[in-house]
Amino acid sequence: MLNNGTPSLALAQIRVRDCMHKGVLTCAPDDSLQEVAATMAKHRVHAVVITAPSASRPLGVVSDLDVVAGVAAGANCTASQAAATESVTISGEESLGTAAQLMTEHGVSHLVVVDRADGYPVGVLSTLDIAAAYSHG
User: Fold this and answer.
1) Which of 6, 40, 51, 56 could form a disulfide with 26 if both were Cys (CB 3.0 to 4.6 A apart)?
2) Is the pLDDT score of 2 beyond 80?
3) What is the helix (H) or strand (E) element at residue 131, kind and residue range?
């Protein structure tokens, strides 16, 4: 942020689509937390998007912190029960500045990038993606 509270000009000119991870790892709402953790470990990701079996639209996000909280509580639960992370979506056409503001406002570290026309997930943008873009000026 600049002193006046506006996002960096560099972030305002970069599109989400240029920095996001293409493709989305998903799970069903009734998948076990252990299954979700296995997906995260296998693919070395920090979040899995919960989708409805019939629609593929994002219903929620299970983050690595949600898994850790479930493990700490000794929970034997489903993905939808464990998902404390809000599913916040953004179009790939939006700027990284807008993405950074959304993440800050909602207290999330991942945004589900959706196709503007149909709302289906096409990728994920993380705080680390924004940090990488910012670090390159």
Assistant:
1) 51
2) no
3) helix 127-135
CATH match of 15-135 with 3.10.580.10 = yes
pTM value is 0.84
The whole-angstrom separation of Cα 87 and Cα 70 is 18
pLDDT tens, residue by residue, 17-37: 999 999 999 999 999 999 999
Instruction: Decide if pLDDT at 93 tops 60.
Output: yes
Residue 60 CA, distance from chain mean position: 9
Nearest to 99 by CA among 58, 133, 56: 133
Please state, in angstroms and rounded to a whole number, the distance separating the CA atoms of residues 56 and 126.
20
Residues 6 or more apart whose Cβ sits within 8 Å of residue 13:
95
- Distance of alpha carbon 111 from alpha carbon 16, whole angstroms: 10
Domain definitions of the chain by residue range: 15-135
